[in-house]
Write a structure and sequence with these properties.
Blueprint (H helix, E strand, L loop, with lengths): L2 H42 L16 H9 L5 E7 L10 H11 L10 E5 L2 H9 L3 E4 L16 H19 L3 E5 L3 E3 L15 E5 L16 E8 L3 H12 L9 H10 L2 H5 L3 E4 L4 E3 L12 E3 L6 H20 L14 H6 L7
Parallel strand pairs: 1-2, 1-4, 2-3, 6-8, 9-10
Antiparallel strand pairs: 4-7, 5-10, 6-7
Helix pairs in contact: 3-9, 5-6
Amino acid sequence: MDQQPSRLRVPLVLFLLVLISVYLILLGSHHAKSGSFIAITHTFDIPRPMSFMPSARHADDLDIALAKAATEFKTVILTVVNKAYVEGDKAMLDIFLDGFWEGEDTRSLVDHLLVVAIDQTAYERCRFRRLHCYKLKTDGVDFVGEKMYMSEDFIKMMWQRTLFLGTVLKRGYNFIFTDTDVLWLRNPFPLLHQNDNLDLQISVDKFNHVNNQLSEKDQLINTGFYMIRSSNKTITLFDEWYARKDTSIGMKEQDVLIELVKQGAFQRLGLGVRFLDTVFFSGICEDSSDVRAVVTVHANCCRSIKAKEEDLTKIIHDWQRFKASATDPTLQFAWSNHSACIESWIEPPPS
């Protein structure tokens, strides 16, 4: 009689032991899994895919154009054109490109030139020349025809250009900006110091010295040719510069930058700035005194595109004449008279 209850208790005890064992195994497994996940995420710190990061954005047409034209050090040569600069028997863009063809060690630089077109005709002409091209949207503003110096449309176009160039800096690209009326007769890169101490190297209309020391506030800077390095300091400069657009009515962007310089903006922002000597980076305002050293010639101090084209053509002929006799130590060289640009200030503007 007493053996029957004993036989029943044994299976019951075994069943309870099995239940307890299963519970402990499951509990341990849960803690082990939790501990493993924490350890993995802490040890490897796996980043989220780029597309989910807040700062990520898809590459746009400007990103693609800059990447194609840039050097391995993310430096690009930029110029801006409209219809008036690409049409005619010998358009300004054609003369500009002639400079690269005729210059010393300049032909390969066209591979790093990005032509920014501000109308469809200019863009199509650029594509026809098989250059790197980018079509800049101008929010319905008409920049098609010639914009006479200091006209309202000219000033608007200069500010639009400044806004765009600031965007390029924000994309992380260094650049040389060059007006299309600048002839590149020699490769400027060997003369443009590429180090962290210089943020901006900019041309001037006339190169001034005071007691053999460069006076920053006395330089007549010209925004038609400069090299700038992308940094927080230069981006801030462009932001401050463009922010003055609406409070500087009737002033072109170059004059506003000159005002910033006089107010000490370069020192306040800690910018390393170099002003380019006109012996090397010259113009119609001030000829280079040494044709064996000159690098660029800018059709500054000139009012109309027609006059610029005429005098730049003379300069190319001067350059060809020099190259043909460059080995002659007795060569007496002089630039042709810039008569068209001088007369452009006397002639009434085209209607």
